[in-house]
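Supplementary Note 3. Input sequence used for the single-chain structure prediction.
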Amino acid sequence: MYLLGLGLVLLAMKYLEIGFVAAWDWWVVLIPFGLAVLWWFWADSSGYTKRQAMEREDARRKARIDKNREALGTLSRKKKG
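The predicted structure, written as discrete structure tokens, is reproduced below.
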């Protein structure tokens, strides 16, 4: 996501001819977009994206269970303190 943001900023600077980026070649400005595509390909093919999603779901599930246990008063004294 950071690469995409960087690419958009560089693209805007190049298009509007702002600062030192105006003198760069277009291929240099477009490099972050290519790197973002490579990152997304790697993240999807390696399972990184799925692992991150599963960790977020597990954290939400654990928080929900803890909240329900606390509401019922079944949490152990160790976790309350």
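Residues 49-81 form one domain. The chain has a mean pLDDT of 89.
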